[in-house]
# Entry
Amino acid sequence: MTHRDGSPHLRCLVTGATGYIGGRLVPELLDAGHQVRCLARTPQKLRDHPWADRVEVVRGDVADEESVRASMRDIDVAYYLVHALGTGAGFERTDRRAAEIFGEQARAAGVRRVVYLGGLTPRNVPAPELSPHLRSRAEVGAILLRSGVPTTVLRAAVIIGSGSASFEMLRYLTERLPVMVTPSWVRTRIQPIAVRDVLRYLVGSALMPDEVNRAFDIGGADVVTYRDMMRRYAAAAGLPRRLIVPVPVLTPGLSSHWVGLVTPVPRQIARPLAESLRHEVVCDEHDIAAYVPDPPGSPIGVDKALVLALQRVRETRVTTRWSSASVPGAPSDPLPTDPDWAGGSLYTDRRERTVDATPQALWTVIEGVGGENGWYSFPLAWAVRGWADRLVGGVGLRRGRRDAHRLRVGDSLDFWRVEEIDRGRLLRLRAEMRLPGLAWLEMYAEQDEAGRTRYRQRALFHPHGLLGHAYWWSVSPFHAVVFGGMARNIALAAAGGPDRGRAAEEETAR
# Structure
């Protein structure tokens, strides 16, 4: 199949479409005229994306041979954009097996090309000395190159874009710490790349000739140190010059704790990012330009990449974030609303309020909870719960929101994830904090038989073992303040605007 201009019209499979890069690649492929099929473990997470009605979505997992086989049917180009980072000590084994399945099934299905986004590995560093994260990325690339399917492996270092983990880490470190005692890796030379250049290379790789089967280094126009990047970010953001003092005593493990305390990026993600910066990661070649030519002004330099990312953040036009992908090990089922719920004990805290406002005004407040908008009750209690979660390796309360006003299924929202939206009526959140059980929070905007607006709120907890029961009863004395205050202040905010709700929230805190 071809376009009217004679360029190929390809059928593309995208794995990792719920993640940071995959969620941005899909619309780029569609705009290039290709057909797209997405393989997702939880298809409903793609439901609210603006491009959802233009793609085919199939349920599956790259670690499941049967679902990968079915997803490869009639595919020309298969994008491999997933990894098992953060799933535990065995993530390298998981990544290895998933890559083997993907390559085998691509070859069996007659796929014309596999495209993989990996990490840029340092020169002259033996594999055993690489971080587990970089070593696994390199191994996955090698497996796909040996699969018998022509493969393009794109190797990138730090990716700069609104919502990327690397950018969020850089942003929060620089904005929150005018004086920093930093790990020695801030002096390591790196070659960052703007996310829009990454996407351009990914889309262009689909059209490479069949004889191309190799890895390409991809980077931006500048080679800098991480310290340089922090100073350049400060300049781009209009901040005073930062004082940065590198010290040799902060190991990757210690520095990941430091990053976790200051930024929204949790320790299990911060550590591989920090470990990857121990060695210099600079491109050895720019051969990709022979197949995906650089337009004028590309590759983009660090300063422009930072400005573009900041502009997106300030305009709340962040389409995907590092937290778009689910937290490994987070609960997935069963749902507390299933008619055949048979999960044993289910503790429930219910709150209802009559609201002197329209259901639409109430829904605006409901959909705006979290992030900078807060949770409308006892801010200190929410903050302490977030700090406690970070201390035990959880995501904490700092992930915030992708968009200040509108949510979609699959969005991370502080230490929750949006599980369901019936827009104008229901918002259901699933807890991703560390808990001895499963937890949900539901918020409803409804009208009763008399035509009055009603706010209904339900917190649910399904305990795991004795510890789970003990947890519920230990926190239940605080529910009147936390959940009761939340219901009251949301109703007040809907009736009198956010300022009235926040004033009540501050009064509750006092």
